[in-house]
TrEMBL record:
Species whose genome carries this gene: Manduca sexta
Protein name: Uncharacterized protein
Lineage: Eukaryota, Metazoa, Ecdysozoa, Arthropoda, Hexapoda
């Protein structure tokens, strides 16, 4: 079943980009069309759309469920067993989080529920486990977590191995509370090793993915639009932090002699007819590798450039993000 699922997922990760740029554009357009009020007032009332081929982890999780439904014929019941599950990233106190309450309800004020993935509960010879699929973090394989941590438990695996950075992941059930799966991430850059712990709540389906997680994503201060290869490796795209000045973005794509990665200023794209020819050519190469229609990435960059000069809006958006960070930190 895992092999068949992974064959489907490796195609899906190529056909579906990760995109937290278009929902950012949609929020701006909706806010500009709204009544004269602050973004802080508008944001709680805004319902973000989930649109085809413009997906963050929420939409990608929905696409995974649709994709894997074709396995129902071979594995009756799999459609009913699949569910979106929520994830809290960067857990500070594992024992406190997992033992204070059976589920996350005790932490609802102090948590962001900032990620979504797909889970399928399984029993193998009476032994409980869960299959996990996470296209939002570019994982094209299925990770298996068994409660007893025995075969076919996946354990540590290398998610990406680039010259500058290696990322390794491990999923395991929490020993104190099997409602949670621990997601351990180890990032190695030269001699520097950084570790991170997140918690996935797998006891129930996550019913608020759009209204909580997708909405949280709207005001994050890092945006990206990324194409992946069948193994989930990033192949082309753009990414940028949101900031009030010195606004630029990174563009990357495959060139004739390897990966090309450049920083460009948003102001360059304010007027389409004035963009230098060599920059247009690079954007078009990236556009093609993102599998976009002709000129689509250029139009997106032009729209982003116009938002970046709206200092009042950017200040309001970053204030909303800071407020959410403050609430989730319990301060």
């Amino acid at each position: 079943m895992v092999a068949k699922a992974e064959a489907l997922l490796s195609r899906l990760v190529v056909s579906e980009n990760y995109d937290s740029v278009n929902n950012f554009l949609s929020l701006y357009d909706a806010y500009m069309d709204s009544a004269d009020e602050s973004l802080m007032e508008f944001f709680p009332k805004y319902n973000p759309p989930i649109r085809p081929r413009k997906n963050t982890c929420v939409g990608l999780g929905m696409e995974v469920i649709k994709c894997l439904k074709v396995l129902e014929k071979d594995y009756p019941g799999i459609t009913r067993a699949m569910m979106l599950v929520s994830c809290d990233e960067n857990i500070q106190d594992l024992d406190d989080y997992t033992t204070s309450f059976p589920g996350p309800q005790g932490f609802l004020i102090e948590t962001e529920k900032d990620h979504v993935l797909v889970a399928i509960h399984v029993k193998i010879d009476g032994r409980s486990g869960v299959f996990l699929s996470d296209l939002g973090y570019h994982i094209s394989r299925v990770a298996t977590a068994m409660v007893d941590r025995c075969y076919p438990h996946t354990g540590w695996f290398t998610q990406s191995d680039e010259p500058h950075c290696r990322k390794e992941y491990n999923y395991q059930f929490n020993i104190n509370n099997t409602n949670y799966v621990e997601w351990h991430e180890r990032e190695t850059r030269g001699a520097n090793v950084k570790e991170r712990l997140s918690l996935i709540y797998v006891a129930r389906a996550y019913m608020s993915a759009v209204h909580v997680t997708e909405k949280r994503n709207l005001v994050w201060d890092l945006r990206s639009l990324l194409a992946r290869d069948p193994k989930g490796r990033l192949s082309a795209g753009i990414y940028f932090p949101l900031k009030r000045k010195d606004q630029d973005f990174t563009i990357f794509f495959d060139g004739p002699n390897g990966k090309i990665r450049k920083k460009l200023k948003f102001e360059t794209f304010l007027e389409l007819q004035k963009i230098p020819d060599d920059v247009v050519e690079e954007v078009e190469q990236c556009n093609e590798q993102l599998r976009f229609r002709d000129g689509e990435l250029l139009r997106i960059l032009n729209r982003l450039a116009k938002i970046m000069v709206d200092n009042e809006y950017l200040t309001e958006l970053l204030d909303v993000n800071a407020k959410i960070n403050q609430l989730s930190a319990g301060t």
